[in-house]
Each structure stands twice: as structure tokens, then as C-alpha cells.
Specification:
Helix content is 51%, strand content 13%. By secondary structure, the chain is of the alpha/beta class. Helix 2 (36-46) packs parallel to helix 3, helix 7 (151-161) packs across helix 9 and helix 8 packs across helix 9 (177-191). The chain is globular and about 55 Å long. The chain folds into 2 domains: 2-137, Response regulator (Rossmann fold); 145-205, Arc Repressor Mutant, subunit A (Orthogonal Bundle), CATH 1.10.10.10. A 6-stranded parallel β-sheet has the order 2-1-3-4-5-6, sandwiched between helices.
Length: 215
């Protein structure tokens, strides 16, 4: 049996993935976690073979949780399951030690395939993500300015691009509004922009988000 730990801050998502996997003969769900911190603790007690890890969570995000988990349990295979399919996140997560990367639109068949692939010591990337990474690494030109952002800065930026207000981001990431504002202006400084519209244009130019920008 392949022992799997589910990590996502939304109960509905964990329940959905559990239902997709519970009838698969060689997979057993051994635990669930709602945060990166809880994932690290659960891994210590449940000793899963595979962790399905959400990327954007309050507190410790998916990249940091992956890194910390693998420091203590290097044999665990981490597959990230996320809403984000731009190439910056997969590259960072692969560098952190993740073995797979799926978007939340993945079918049950694809999730099972990813679990079995990483158990066979192979990496698994959903086809759209693999294509984006291939394109980003095969084209010449200036490196993306977004590659220098921290995980939390990327989270804040993606939420701004979704049209989230400071208060919404503060609540979702369990940060004070003042801290979120600090991240926002740090983004502006690092990227050389002055407001959210300029940030959106830069993100669209580099293919980090599609062309609607903040609402």
C-alpha cells in the first residue's frame, strides 16, 4: 500500500481528493493536514510515502513546508497540488525537492498516475506545467524578474493579480494588513513598478499571469 498524506487548508479540497483516491486498491490515506506546520508534524507521526501538498496556505507555505519536511524525511515523495500553473512555482518546488506538480483541475486518473510515478522514483509534472517549463528554459533572453521574489512575495503578488484587497490577503495568509502592505511595496521596489496596474502589466509581459490583471 502507498501511504498518502493530504495537505490543504480547505476541507472541501481534502475531502474531494480523499474521495477520488479511497477506492484505489494500492493507495491508503493515512492523514490530513490543514497547514504546512501540521503537515510537518503529521509526517513525523504517520510516516507517509507520498504527501499531496497545497502551495498557498496560511502560515508556512507549500515551498517552505516541502523543504522542512524533506530535511527530516528525505525519502518522502512530495507532489504539489495547486491552482498555480506558471513556471516559477514548479521550478522553485523542484529545487526544494518536490517530485511532482499537479494543478487542482487534475483528474483522479492523473493524480493516481502521479503518485505511482513518484513511488517509482520518477518525477511527474502535469502536461501543461511541463510545457511551460520547457518553453521557459529553452528560450533565450533576460531572466524573469519574478524569479527573485520570495515565496510569500509571490503569494501576495498572485493574490493581488486575482483582485484581492489587502484585508482579504491578510485574512487568507493570517498576516496583519500592515505586513501585507509591506510585502506589496517590497514587490514594487524589487520589480521597479509603482502600482498594481504596472505590476499586472509586468506579470502579463513575462507570462506569470494571463492578460486580465487585477479586477
Amino acid at each position: 500500500m502507498i501511504r498518502v498524506l493530504l495537505v490543504d487548508d480547505h476541507d472541501l479540497v481534502r475531502t474531494g481528493i480523499r474521495r477520488l483516491l479511497e477506492d484505489v486498491n494500492d493507495i491508503e490515506i493515512v492523514g490530513e493536514a490543514a497547514s504546512g506546520e501540521e503537515a510537518v508534524n503529521q509526517a513525523r507521526t504517520q510516516m507517509p510515502d507520498v504527501v499531496l501538498m497545497d502551495l498557498s496556505m496560511p502560515g508556512m507555505g507549500g515551498i517552505e513546508a516541502t523543504r522542512k519536511l524533506l530535511q527530516h524525511h528525505p525519502d518522502i515523495r512530495v507532489i504539489v497540488v495547486t491552482m498555480h500553473d506558471d513556471e516559477l512555482y514548479p521550478q522553485r518546488l523542484l529545487k526544494a525537492g518536490a517530485r511532482g506538480y499537479l494543478t487542482k483541475g487534475a483528474s483522479a486518473t492523473e493524480i493516481v498516475r502521479a503518485i505511482r510515478e513518484v513511488m517509482a522514483n520518477r518525477r511527474y509534472l502535469s502536461p501543461d506545467v511541463a510545457q511551460q517549463i520547457a518553453l521557459s528554459t529553452s528560450t533565450d533572453g533576460v531572466a524573469s524578474p519574478f524569479a527573485n521574489l520570495s515565496e510569500r512575495e509571490l503569494q501576495v503578488m498572485m493574490m493581488l493579480m486575482e483582485g484581492c484587497k489587502i484585508g482579504d490577503i491578510s485574512e487568507r495568509l493570517c498576516l496583519s494588513p500592515k505586513t501585507v502592505s509591506t510585502y506589496r511595496y517590497r514587490l514594487y521596489d524589487k520589480l521597479g513598478v509603482n502600482n498594481d496596474m504596472e505590476l499586472a502589466r509586468l506579470a502579463i509581459l513575462h507570462g506569470v499571469v494571463e492578460g486580465n490583471g487585477p479586477h
